[in-house]
Amino acid sequence: MAKYTRRDASIMNTWDPVLYWYARAVGEMQKRNAGDPTSWVFQARMHGVEGGANLPPPIPKHWNQCPHGGWYFLPWHRAYIWYFERIVRATIKKIAAAEGITPDPSATWALPYWNYALDPAGTEPAFTSRALPAAFREPQMPSKPDGSGPLVANPLYLPDSRVPEQDFWKKPHRGEGQNSAHEVVDHDAASPYCAMQLDIFSLPKGGMVPQPSFGSANSGPDMPHFDRQGPGQLELTPHGLIHDGIGGWMGAVSGSARDPIFWLHHANIDRFWPSWLKRDVHRKNPQEPWLSRKFILFDESGSQVQPEPTPRDFVKPDLDYEYESLDKGTGQHPVVCAQQVVSAEERVLVTSNPGHPLSLAEPTEVPLEAADDSSQAQSFLASGDVPETGLILTVKGIRSNTPPGTPYRVYLNPPQGEGQPDNDYFVGWVSFFGATDVEGGHHGHGEGNGDGNEFSYDITDRVRQLQERGLWTQDPLTVSIVPATPAPSEFAASPYAPRPSVEHVIITTR
Fold this sequence. Notes:
By secondary structure, the protein is of the alpha+beta class. It has ten helices and 15 strands. The strands form four sheets. It has a nine-stranded antiparallel sheet with strand order 5-12-9-15-6-8-13-10-11. Residues 442-449 have low confidence and may be disordered.
């Protein structure tokens, strides 16, 4: 039996001792010098250095480490939050000793997880599991663990506010409205259902292979900071979409670990991994060189861990923690799954030709036209004829100045003027996580990411289904890109509102 149990924060009372002591420890860590490996800023910068930090080069090798889009995404984040958990536990112990609090709360404390997929779609009353846990939405907290004493500032709270782009990293914040008791994303975006259906951890990188697998493409011995061709299904949904839904600092890769909810989100992502393995004895983790990659991490004494930890150290059955449940909120309720693939442009059949970025500030219809005058292109436009080699829809140049505070849905040829289309036309998701200008150049995201994010989907079956059901309409062919959670109207009109956009949409055949 593991010594520590990571519990579900979505069903805790607001100031359950686990959350109370997490808040106290976060507050103490935030007071420490940024050069101290046990400080809040240092730990966050190990994940990514926030844009505009004005740090003199070179950036230390122990910062900007987070791997996204490669097969080290899961093991590195597991090791990262495990050492963070030890730092928090040691900080709690120090605070309790200084205040003469017994028994020692650190003896049993473990990092909780945010079980945002606990409630199925349509749950009444409020979508509590998909709202931020209440402790993260309260500006103040009790000063004493028993609830007594005056209220004090709550370190888990970040205002949901409108922040000018130039002040993005100067003012801690979340997306507008995300500190309400309403869901930050809907059930489809929060659910790991699609990832849990996949039996393979990683598939070879390159070529037109089904992507994603559960845990990312095979990136060999490399640990890419952000590879848009290699994320696994879990990294895309729900991982990236939860970041999108919270917005603010959480919506930007480079500084997301500055938001205290980051760590509970990643504890939940880590929980999905043993749950995935548990469902089928034939499911396996990768072997070499995956098992031997060394990570740079720091322990509760502030010392770099030696020998350097590897995935091998974190896939052993005798880890010192377990989860309260590997079943609840792990994708039991089916959702429509996107058929994402690696982009491989061979022949462009139809295309958008905007000539400039198209704003996604509101639901946007992107008209497509034949890329040439071939009979195949014209036949597809008119009747949805599917080439034998299949069809791939790619959305290119997805970027924004600041995180939009929502993921986006992509629909193929939906009826016009009927509000948000239903799942008959659903193709997939668009995420801005890692594609905002405020990411900063140090990390290789955002401006360093060049052309922004790009997502490709195999739409062969979707087109055939629309044909068979008589839902394929004649010209013009359109793709609709719709915010999953529309911004409040007064926020959308603000000069500080995010400016999400897309460059290009194409449909290709092999």
